[in-house]
Write a structure and sequence with these properties.
Largest sheet: 5 strands, mixed
CATH topology of the largest domain: D-Maltodextrin-Binding Protein, domain 2
Number of domains: 3
Mean pLDDT: 90
CATH architecture of the largest domain: 3-Layer(aba) Sandwich
Low-confidence stretches: none
Number of strands: 12
Strand order of the largest sheet: 4-3-5-12-6
Helix content: 40-55%
Shape: elongated
Strand content: 15-25%
Distance between the termini: 59 Å
CATH class of the largest domain: Alpha Beta
Number of helices: 10
């Protein structure tokens, strides 16, 4: 089986227009040239792609099955052409996976630094769960992903994934300033690495959490603390992004967390990705 990109592009237009004549007008070919391309493509795929329908054509069963793949190839070609055009124009695009707390701190200054770089870098942000960050860069969903590593929960990254340390901060204990606040713990689910780190910290401190409130959203967690529902282990960046009137005290046995940027070894060799990583290091250095 064989075909050319031009044949696939023309095939998609004929399928959309339902007519060789209409496709010829749109593509700037003669009807005879379109007919020849479709005949060659039919030979390449091993069967007729179109059936006659009066003065037009309709897709055969083979044509219906082949069309999605032809569209995918032509889409990827257009994307490649755009990417190459950007590179020749001195621009590249980096896809960055972010999560709420870190994204609130870094997105705006990262955009500024990327635009001011030489050559400039275009950024595309996508929310990526910190638990899935390594997989997201490994599979190519994003080029760089922000994630979190916890001192009390060691992590083993895939060999092709590398991490850049951006910010290490301790956990602190937060409680309501209102008198009579509950002493019950507000914790993340233990199915998450954050929750497992909190569970281990409380165990090391000899503090139980049998009646703990389980909350996934960090904004909700600090809101419940302020309301006097309970106390929680949080970190300074979380409190900066979600400011509340809280009493905060050290939690020396709770360990620390480190915000990291993940990428693959191959992506890390791209000049544009290196620009993004350097910018992230500068941004988080200012938050220490």
């Amino acid at each position: 089986m064989s075909w050319t990109l031009t044949q696939l592009q023309t095939f998609c237009v004929v399928a959309d227009r339902g007519s060789m004549q209409a496709a010829a007008t749109e593509c700037g070919y003669t009807p005879g040239a379109v007919s020849q391309q479709m005949a060659a493509l039919s030979r390449g795929v091993g069967g007729e792609l179109f059936l006659r329908d009066g003065r037009g054509v309709v897709l055969s069963d083979l044509g219906q099955a082949f069309l999605p793949y032809a569209r995918r190839v032509t889409r990827e070609d257009r994307a490649a052409q755009r990417a190459l055009g950007e590179l020749h124009a001195g621009r590249a695009t980096v896809r960055v996976g972010i999560f709420e707390t870190a994204g609130a701190v870094c997105c705006r200054p990262l955009l500024r630094r990327a635009a001011a770089a030489d050559p400039p870098v275009d950024l595309v942000f996508e929310e990526v769960d910190v638990e899935q960050a390594a997989g997201a860069v490994r599979s190519g969903v994003v080029d760089v992903a922000l994630s979190v590593h916890y001192e009390l929960v060691p992590v083993q990254l895939p060999p092709e994934v590398v991490s850049v340390r951006l910010l290490t901060e301790p956990f602190v204990q937060a409680r309501s300033r209102e008198p009579g606040g509950a002493s019950t713990w507000i914790v993340p689910p233990v199915a998450e690495t954050f929750g497992l780190a909190v569970q281990r910290a409380l165990h090391l401190a000899g503090r139980g959490q049998e009646s703990a409130h389980v909350v996934t959203d960090t904004a909700l967690m600090v809101a419940l603390v302020e309301a006097g529902v309970g106390r929680a282990l949080v970190n300074p960046l979380m409190l900066r992004v979600h400011p509340r009137e809280l009493e905060v005290e050290p939690a020396p046995r709770a360990g620390s967390r480190t915000i990291v940027a993940l990428t693959t070894r191959a992506q890390g060799r791209r000049a544009s990705v290196q620009t993004v990583l350097r910018a992230l290091e500068e941004i988080f250095a200012g938050n220490r």
